[in-house]
Amino acid sequence: MSDNNPSGDFLRWRRNKLDPTALGIRPVKRRRTLGLRREEIAERAGISCEWYVKLEQGRAISASHETIAALARALVLDASETAHLRRLAVRGAAPFFVRETVSDIVRTIVQSLPEPAYVTGERWNALCWNGSADRLFGFSEMPGADRNILCYMLTSHAARDLFGESWAKEAQRMIALFRVTYDQRRGDPLFEAIVSALVTASAEFPA
After folding, report:
1. Domain ranges of the chain
2. What long-range pairs does 6-14 form, CB within 8 A, spacing at least 24?
3. Cα dihedral angle (186, 181, 87, 74), rounded to 10 degrees?
4. What is the CATH number that goes with domain 6-89?
């Protein structure tokens, strides 16, 4: 996705993935590209084609809650994708990310628990953990900069072995949660760095 028009990129990407036949749209003439045309999405959403074109091109100032809901239905988005679109449509960005710290009280509570327990920050860095979690995930053996749960999940063979058949479902759940935060932190160097690393190292992480 481009930095200048992430919501338009997402709309275009999703529109191109839709199958007209599966949606009951009969072709009136030969299609040059896959997916639905802009006017077909606009019709399905009940908005003007001109307005939809502006949304894709990033020329529209904003889209209402109702318009986003209509677009979600037209584009056949699931709940996670709809939330993603809503956040992309919001103008403005969060302040630059500052690495979190854990209070002594929280650290003491985590370390006192008998079951595996750990605390992560917005970027999914492991901030503290107890002995059970260390034995399970090997936090103390990871370099400080690499103590990232998302990276561990998507790039470590140990994670695949640990989660077994549930690995794919859990990995997608974590990616969806990370994407919610990333929508608000887009452009932040620390978040862009982890996204760049995961795009390179993990086939499961969406570009």
Report:
1. 6-89, 104-201
2. 6/88, 6/186, 7/55, 7/58, 7/85, 7/88, 7/89, 8/55, 8/56, 8/57, 8/58, 10/84, 10/85, 10/88, 11/41, 11/55, 11/56, 11/71, 11/75, 11/85, 12/56, 14/75, 14/77, 14/81
3. 110
4. 1.10.260.40
Closest Cα partner for 33 from 20, 49, 24?
20
**How confident is the model over 119-147, as pLDDT tens digits?**
999 999 999 999 999 999 999 998 877 79
Model confidence over 33-48: pLDDT tens digits?
A: 678 989 999 999 988 8
pTM over 0.70: no
85 and 63 Cβ atoms separated by less than 8 Å: no
Q: What would the two tokens of residue 136 be?
A: 């399970």
Share of the chain above pLDDT 90, in %: 46
What pLDDT is recorded for position 4?
62
In one-letter notation, the amino acid at residue 161 is D
Residue 113 DSSP class = -
**Chain position carrying tokens 């809650």:** 65
At a CB cut-off of 8 Å and minimum separation 6, what does 55 contact?
7, 8, 11, 63, 71
Residue 196 has pLDDT above 50, yes or no: yes
Rounded CA-CA distance 110/128 in Å is 8
